[in-house]
Amino acid sequence: MTLINFPNHKKAKALKPGSRRPAKELCSECGLCDTYYVHYVKEACAFINQQIDKLEEQTHNRSRNLDNPNELYFGVQQDMMAARKTEPIPGAQWTGIVSSIAIEMLNRGIVEGVVCVQNTQEDRFQPLPVIATTPEEILAARVNKPTLSPNLSILEQVEKSGMKRLLVIGVGCQIQALRAVEKQLGLEKLYVLGTPCVDNVTRAGLQKFLETTSRSPNTVVHYEFMQDFRVHFKHEDGSTETVPFFGLKTNKLKDVFAPSCMSCFDYVNSLADLVVGYMGAPFGWQWIVVRNDLGREMLELVKDQLETQPVMSKGDRKAAVQQSIPAYDKGVTLPMWAAKLMGVVIEKIGPKGLEYARFSIDSHFTRNYLYMKRNYAEKLEAHVPEFAKRIVGQYKLPE
Ligand code: FAD
Ligand code: SF4
After folding, report:
1. How many domains would you assign to the chain?
2. I need a surface site. Which of 135, 198, 303, 390 has the fewest CB within 10 A?
């Protein structure tokens, strides 16, 4: 087992807000560099030093088995399932499984604090990382802030607070850096509850996405790219708007996604103890991956609040992925009538359950591989993990 163990806890001066980060334009604003842990940035940053397999060993006692098809795609695991809360939390992103686990952990004294993301008073989509110490503060962090969020900026506060048992909720790039400095935090116990993440944006990028895609950008309170191949927007008045993926103005949106997300291969949050998303579950359900014993312990806490079913898989994604590669590359946008038609056909006969998740992973990994190859060729070999190379290798890519 390889342990990433820094000899002493060294500190460096946090970088000033807005200053250029060591990962330059690939920085995902994970927050590490806002703290004295910036000292470790060269080893810890997900975009400077890709080390998923080493950190998998450190966290789960083994790296993923590349010959096991589920581990190749979804990472180290003990169990996978679809689940939903029998009484969903109003205003949560899906049914609120993430918030419910965090609340249970706090109420039962398993942890003293929970790192999560609220929003600022002025802007519902501007992230505000906090260490929540009450259920109300956890609930105030429910729902996605679909923007890059500096979750790790509170790490200094964690150490100074003297907390010894902590739950961190976060996306893959934040968790990669967290795992790399975990030993320096002075904690007795760290639990990590992760969500998958893809195609994130800066706050300005989010505005452009909403303005390009929604009929009423300023009233959107929540959106998600769903398993029915549509983006679902929820507005302030409770109404829902759907836009087919194939109708997105790809030419205008090409530059919206953050360069960090265009070069990310950790869609499924490989280093969390437990992952809660939706991509491998039937429409309306959440998707759960238990990676290790800590993840199982967390899930057990809410089992009596959940309805569950086994994961399923239907359809064949490969032709659809292959066809979408040049279309995305050239920024082709279909007329809306054709996009709707294609959406309906694909929803009827297209990939479902785990096959939908594989469709989404394949589409993003091929796109990101091409992005890296064209823009950061010198980083390609070291930055793309072995599992992603195998996944991308199934497809014919344009030069
Ligand atoms: P809730 O109970 O509503 O809790 C949401 C939690 O997310 C809160 O605790 C909050 O602290 C945290 N959070 C909110 N915004 C951020 C942020 N920007 N960075 C880090 N943490 C944040 N799942 C998929 O299956 N496929 C995807 O492509 C996918 N993309 C995602 C992109 C982003 C930016 C995020 C944050 C999540 C994404 N997810 C994705 C996860 C999914 O949308 C839900 O967050 C997850 O299923 C949990 O739902 P819930 O109702 O249990 O969460
Ligand atoms: Fe620093 Fe995080 Fe940006 Fe890397 S991604 S440069 S660790 S803030």
Report:
1. 1
2. 303
**Tens digits of residue pLDDT in 137-156:** 999 999 999 999 999 999 99
CB of 27 shorter than 6 A to ligand 2:
yes
pLDDT for the residue 246: 75
33 within some domain: yes
Global pTM reads 0.94
Contact 98, 169 (CB under 8 A): yes
Domain that holds residue 30: 8-201+260-312
Give residue 194's identity as a one-letter amino acid code. Answer: G
Q: Return the best residue to mutate from 47, 50, 260 for the ligand 2 pocket (most ligand atoms within 8 A of CB).
A: 47
Please identify which residue in the block is written with the tokens 């923007």.
147
Instruction: Please check whether residue 74 is in contact with residue 268, taking contact to mean a CB–CB distance below 8 angstroms.
Output: yes
pLDDT at 346 over 50: yes
Per-residue pLDDT band for 367 (boundaries 50, 70, 90) equals very high
CA distance 209 to 200: 11
What is the per-residue pLDDT for 375?
95
User: Could you read off the pLDDT of 158-208 as tens digits, one per residue?
Assistant: 988 999 999 999 999 999 999 999 999 999 999 999 999 999 999 888 999
In Å, what is the CA distance from 275 to each residue of 10, 98, 271, 344, 348?
31, 9, 9, 30, 28
Residue 191 lies in a domain: yes
Residues in the chain: 399
Residue 102 pLDDT exceeds 90: yes
Among the bound ligands, the one closest to the CA of 172: 1
Nearest CA to ligand 1 atom 42: 277
Quickly tell me which residue has 């980083």 as its tokens. Answer: 379
Q: Is the CB of 334 under 6 A from ligand 2?
A: no
Residue 177 lies in a domain: yes
Angle formed by the axes of helices 97-107 and 293-300, nearest 10°: 90
Cα 26 to ligand 1 centre (Å): 21
Q: For the chain, how big is the Rg over CA atoms in Å?
A: 20
Return phi, psi of residue 108, to 5°.
-90, 5
Confidence (pLDDT) at 399: 81
Where would I find the H helices in 116-162? 135-139, 155-161
Determine, yes or no, domain membership for 34.
Answer: yes
- pLDDT value at 266 more than 80: yes
